[in-house]
Design brief:
Structural class: alpha+beta
Strand order of the largest sheet: 1-2-3-4-5-6-8-7
Number of helices: 4
Mean pLDDT: 94
Number of strands: 8
CATH architecture: 3-Layer(aba) Sandwich
Largest sheet: 8 strands, mixed
Oligomer: single chain
Shape: globular
Distance between the termini: 15 Å
Order of helices and strands: EEHHEEEHEHEE
CATH class: Alpha Beta
Length: 185
């Protein structure tokens, strides 16, 4: 069975980015992103009510890492590593089947600059090489063409289309599931 036993949080680097652990000092920016309807348009989750809720969320993220339940990074530019511009990570880890779901979000000021793609490449490599995942899964809102294109560009294949499979804000919504298999398995 898959286990995530990292003794310390695995910070990652790319050419332009630092992927680091969430800090409570990120709360203001994360709150702004998670209450921004442009950012959250296709992320069908309730919006946080206040900063305390976000701080609790960050603490839960970090505790989830310590328990081996999830692994989520802040995306920051190398030139300003303390300033969060997005997040990317794994959750809903299915240990028995060596699968985890990946998700990401980015401040709209940084869209269309290749930042999500750069973070995704590094995160996928880490998932396969360090976490020993067999499958990386992504669950997207069917209207999210940008995310669909991003996933397909990086080798993900549509695995399923679910009609009205979840309820959010008074309506049943469809979702698409994409998967990427570890090429080394």
């Amino acid at each position: 069975m898959l286990t995530l036993n990292f003794t310390k949080f695995p910070n990652l680097e790319t050419e332009r980015l630092i992927l680091r652990e969430h800090k409570l000092s990120d709360a203001d920016i994360l709150f702004a992103m998670r209450t921004n309807e442009t950012v959250m348009k296709y992320i069908d989750r309730e919006r946080p009510k206040d900063l305390l809720e976000i701080k609790t969320f960050i603490t839960a993220f970090n505790e989830g890492f310590e328990k081996g339940d999830n692994l989520a990074w802040v995306i920051a530019l190398k030139e300003n590593p303390e300033h969060m511009i997005g997040s990317i990570g794994y959750w809903r880890t299915d240990y028995a089947n060596h699968r985890a779901e990946i998700g990401y979000m980015l401040d709209p000021n940084y869209w269309r600059k290749g930042i999500t793609a750069e973070a995704l490449i590094k995160t996928i490599a880490f998932g396969f090489e360090e976490m020993n995942l067999h499958t990386i899964k992504a669950n997207i809102n069917t209207g999210n063409n940008a995310s669909r294109k991003m996933l397909v560009k990086h080798g993900f294949v549509k695995e399923a289309y679910f009609k009205q499979d979840y309820y959010f804000r008074g309506q049943f919504l469809d979702s698409e599931i994409y998967r990427l298999l570890n090429p080394n398995h």
